[in-house]
Each structure stands twice: as C-alpha cells, then as structure tokens.
Amino acid sequence: MPGKGLSREDIVTAAAELIESDGLDRLSARELAARLHIKAASLYNHIRSMDELHTGVGYYAIAELKRAQLQAIGGKSRDDAVRALAESYYRFGRGRPELYKVILSLPMVKNDALQVAAGDVVEPIMSAMSGYDLTMEQKMHLQRVLRSIMHGFISQEEAGCFRHFPVHVSESYRIAVEGFILLLKNMENEARHENK
Amino acid sequence: MPGKGLSREDIVTAAAELIESDGLDRLSARELAARLHIKAASLYNHIRSMDELHTGVGYYAIAELKRAQLQAIGGKSRDDAVRALAESYYRFGRGRPELYKVILSLPMVKNDALQVAAGDVVEPIMSAMSGYDLTMEQKMHLQRVLRSIMHGFISQEEAGCFRHFPVHVSESYRIAVEGFILLLKNMENEARHENK
DNA sequence: TTGACAGACTAACGCCGTTAGTCTATAATT
DNA sequence: AATTATAGACTAACGGCGTTAGTCTGTCAA
After folding, report:
1. Which of residues 29-58 of A touch B (CB under 8 A)?
2. pLDDT tens digits, residue range A89-99?
3. Which of B146, B135, B130, B141 is nearest to B180 (CA)?
4. Using a CB-CB distance cutoff of 8 angstroms, which residues of chain A are in contact with residue B107?
C-alpha cells in the first residue's frame, strides 16, 4: 500500500478541521486534498462523493454536540438541567459556528442512517426534561419547542439579525429559556389539576 | 436598444420564479438566462453578480413575508394578533419554502441596505405586540424570542427533524406559540406588581 | 445622416465535483 | 525467494459553474 496511513476517518477529520478553521464554504475536494498532500481525485479511493463526506462530518458534529450537552446536564435535574442544556447548546452553536452549520445543512430526510443521528439530537433534551411530571407525548412536543428556541436563536444571531438593537443578546436568550421553563411548569400544573 | 424590454427587476422576478418552481439550488446564471432567452453573460449587463441578484431576491422575499404578516394581523390585538402573526409566518415558511430559504441565506452583516430589510422583519412582530403593557426593551427581547421560535420551528421541520415521532407538528407549534403568550402575560404581570 | 450606446453575442479563464485509466509499491500466496 | 493481487496514489479529461473581455448590431438622439 503506497502512501498508506490514510483512512476514511482521517479524511472526515481533516474535513472537519478545514471547515472549523476556514469555513464551510471553503471546503472543496482540491483544498481538502492539498491538506492531506494528495490530489483531489485520490480522495475518491476513500469516499464516494463530497456529499457523503459532508454527511460524515455531520455525524461527527452531532456527536460532539450530544457529548457537550450530556456533560452539561451532568447530575442536574429539572430547571437546572434545562438551563445547563440551553447554555451548552448555545455555547456550541456560537463557539463552533461552522461545525454547527454542518448540522443545519444535513437533510435528515433522505438518509435512513441520519435518522439515528437525529435521535442523538433529541436524547439530551429528553434527558434534561426527565424530572418533570409530564406524559411522553407532552415531552415530545416540548422537546421540539425547546429545540426551536435554541436553534432559532443561534441561527438568527449567526445571520446577524440581532445586531440592530442595543439590547443584550444573552439577556434575550435568558428570557427565552426562562419562558420555556415557565411553560414546562404550567403544563405540569395543568395535569395536576386535572387529576385532582 | 436591441432585444429591449429586459430590466433588472425582470431578472430578479424571473430568479424568484425559478427558485420557487425548481428550488434554490437550481438557480444558476445559465439556467436563469435560458428562461429569459438570453445567454448567461448577458445577465451581467443588468446585475453585478449572482450574489447581488441573490440579495435582490432576498428583498423581494422579505417584502412578501412582511406583507403576509401585516395582512394577517389586520385589526387584531394582543393574543389574537400574536396568534395570527405566528400562523401567517408558519404558512409562509411552509408554503413557500424555497423563497423562505432565500431569506435565511441572507447574511445581514455585510450589507448596510439589508439592515433596512431587517427592520421589515421586526416591524410586524412589534406591531403584533403593541397591545401589551411592556417596555420597549422588553418588547425587543420578546421579539427576538418569538422570531426564534417561529424560525427555529420552520427550519427544523423543513430539515426533516420532526418526522421521527408520531405527534402532530401543528400541535407542537400551537404549544410553542401559547407558551410565548404565557411569557408575554407573565412579564406584563411582573411589571404590574412592581409598580403597585 | 451620423454618432453614441444599450444590450445582445462568442470565447475564454479558473474554479468545481467527478470518472476513467494507469502506474507502483507493498502484502499475501505459492 | 518469486509471483501475483491489490490498495492507493497519479494524470487527463468532462461538463458545469460564475465571471470577464471584447465584439457586433440595432435603435435613438443630434
């Protein structure tokens, strides 16, 4: 094996590094190949297409995000867990914006394997909400709500939509998260009154 | 003027139509030119670059979205206005997904003129919240929160993230909006108690 | 009638992802 | 130890992309 020591995983890792350092739009077969000291065509000995590589980086990014969230939740529960989750999600999105973009650009539809990865996105949120007295169906709805808040916030700030007013973005986010916690408790109480 | 009757606006309109019918990723100079029965290079007599054209379509999309929202709010106020706004936003995002993508892909940072357009995004939301007894600063925060909810929801559903559970998406959205209204009223009441 | 010019054209450049075909060095087999 | 198979690099090329330069032509104003 001439010029060995180059696995598929090496390429995915190199692509992730390229994306994080130079930006997602700078990822190209030739640029990536140059970093690995090979020619663009040689990449195709390891990957099927740039699209598949993109998906591969997506898995990596989702795994990183999941890891960060689970670590943030730690031994916390209820409000503390939700706050920690929201903060870690925000920190990931803002701290590694290019990697976060990769997650966004993944079309979860086409690929079956990606539906597994989609579970990785949901799991930490469900875990953070485990301490609340809610039905599974309620939690599924609320998981979508929280994800929408977190993702919507990050992507709009990233796009520069929040720059135009002199009120602090972090305070807006805090209000959003506290509003979600308010909703959580409200739904808990409603259930309690019905059962009484 | 040989082959006249082709203005910059015609090209923006044609681009918007192309995007809506064939998808944003199918927009290319050659494809667009073919629709206008000219060659790709001739486009540059009217536009500076494809990027600028993209921005032009973005203006159009934002104007459309604003129009839909203001119409939805109509004479409504408070909760009704917020619900109508949220519904119209959702309907726009889901009903014209490719046009909505154009708005998302606009980087509000670079272009000064786009900051004007950003005001068009904010205005209907502030209008819907006008009936609540809140400070301007509070409304600015809450406008960000609502936008995050609406945008986060649409973009995640568009990406296919909500397909994996057998609970209705529209119900999730309803919960999210009602949660926001809950937050609105909660902040109103807090202010009232402080002032008493 | 003539000159200016808007607005189309062709040709070409350098980028992109991707495929086909070739060569070579190592690993496995005889 | 000699041979064969193969992994994995290479060059060359294709069609598509956005974009620029330079050219030609038809209409409108002087």
Report:
1. none
2. 999 999 999 99
3. B146
4. 159-160
